[in-house]
Amino acid sequence: MVFKNITPNVPLVNFVSSIVYYKDFKVEHTKDKFLPDSTTNLVVNLFETPRYIYNNETLKEKQACVEAWFSGMQTEYLTISSDNESEMLVITFKAGASFPFINQNLDTFNNKVVHAKHVFGDDVMDLRKELINEKNADKKIELAKKWLLSQLDEVSFEGEIIQHFVTQIQNSSESINFKELAEKSGYSQKQFIHLFKKHVGLTPKQFHRVVRFNEILCAIFKKEKVDWAFVANEFGYYDQAHFIKDFQAFSGHNPKQYIDDQGDWPHYIPVR
Prior knowledge:
Layout: E1 2-6, E2 16-23, E3 31-34, E4 40-45, E5 51-54, E6 61-65, E7 68-71, E8 78-81, E9 87-93, H1 99-102, E10 113-115, H2 117-120, H3 123-133, H4 137-151, H5 157-170, H6 178-185, H7 189-200, H8 204-220, H9 228-234, H10 240-251, H11 255-261, E11 268-271
Antiparallel strand pairs: 1-2, 2-9, 3-8, 3-11, 4-7, 4-9, 5-6, 5-8, 7-10
Helix pairs in contact: 3-4, 5-7, 9-10
């Protein structure tokens, strides 16, 4: 198996949290559950075998993903076929940071996975061909970085403002006053929400819920015993029932089930 996970240098590090390349990854289960993590992702499949997205309730196939695809902001978990013996390159964009690469409203892609050509045009298919032809793993990652730099547009003033408030929300996972946030931006509340959806995909309130959920996952990850009442209070829920309902909506698991079934990183659960 080959596995590479790199964090790019400036300027890409301001937009991209990781570039991952792997080949011949083998697992014993057939499906993966990915929980909302406030990122968007470009996945380039270097094999011809498609991946499948399943209905979360029935686990019936509902969408085939071929060649390369873009996953927008998710507020629900995705159930996807596992990566057995595949070859993939995955670019993970930070929250609110993919707009300068695609120049399309991010809320267009909320809770969707679409063919990457609809987002990046034919350029992404040229990248895929180059990645397939290149045999060296490190050089594949260099090709991806070069391609990203070619796609990167100048960040607008409004984009810089929204990124500032993305960071503020990420640093205030327990509670936040959204009216005050909009006032600090210099825009009306309606304008602020519109711009936030344009650059991030979600409303500030939706984004905060996803951020808080991920903070909770990190707080409980790999722990065998958790004081759930304490966690609910610590992260600003008015009661434990509200916390459990929110957790279930994002993950399809109640908190205890998550502890029993969690995978190798916080927002991932293998489906056996």
